[in-house]
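Write out a sequence, fold above all:
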Amino acid sequence: MFLAGDIGGTSTRLSLYSKQGQYLCIEKTDRLHSQDYPSLEAAVLAFLEGAESEIRSFCVGVPGPVRGGRVRLTNLPWDFSEESLRSALRIKKVRVVNDLYAFSHGIPHLSDSDLEILHPGGNEHSKDVFSVLAPGTGLGHSLSIRHQNTLVTLASEGGHIDFAPRDEIGISLLRHLFTKYSRVSVERVISGPGLLNIYEFLGTQPETRDFQIEPSVGDTLQPEDVAQAGLARSCPRATLALDIFARALGSLSGNFVLTNLSTGGMYLAGGIPAKLVEKLKDGRLLEMYLSQGRLSGIVADTPLIVVMNSDAGLLGAAYLAEANC
């Protein structure tokens, strides 16, 4: 038996697996409310209560950098390491990885039904390298290389590169964001908080400032409020905010294809793309993705894909745990 985990600020997903031939079989799975537990160790022990089989290995994906097997989460008061997990859980083999690292290792095991293809690409370039771009609470990025039947995934902080707009409204947005931040990264635009930044900016523009959305819960507007109003086209300001968001995501996706030469595919993941997939299919994202100047041909040859399976990161952690047995 082996254990896989995927940690988020709101929920922690855990699954216990066995292996039958070439297949992984889920023996037990649960989604725990992260804030209900003082530590990851406590959450895992609660999940494993009553489990009788020996657990040979555990791999968990975490939202943040992992240094020397240790991680301190920014959105949870959890501080743990591979060693602390081994000691508390009495599991000999424990591996802590970045959540996008785990996610990337799940991609080769996804089925066609887990994927929504926005652009199929072609066959002119190598398909050995692919990238993941994951807008959610923040903006994650990773690069993976298939080499001699092994997948090598490289960590990245690509979500913190400079925001570089290419149209007048994007330039105006950048100027507005400079009134809030000393430096404007792409995460300030392409993320849940980024969508709120776009909506706030449009409140300063003559064409859209008179349109308002009422928060669905409490007094504070959430990214989900803007997204829902934009998808329903019930508020011109929210609708335009989604247009700007989609174009920025398309532009950055094409940029990363060129940066990494990830012609094996650009995968859009995280908490946002699957929820906005119908919006991302309307052509605005794809227009910017393919508009990469003299090197547009490389991007046109690269598939652009939305990962619809929210458990892809957990699946990747499971295969990493199985390989560590």
In short: The chain has eleven helices and 13 strands. The chain has a mean pLDDT of 94. The first strand starts at residue 2 and ends at 7. The two ends are 9 Å apart (CA to CA).
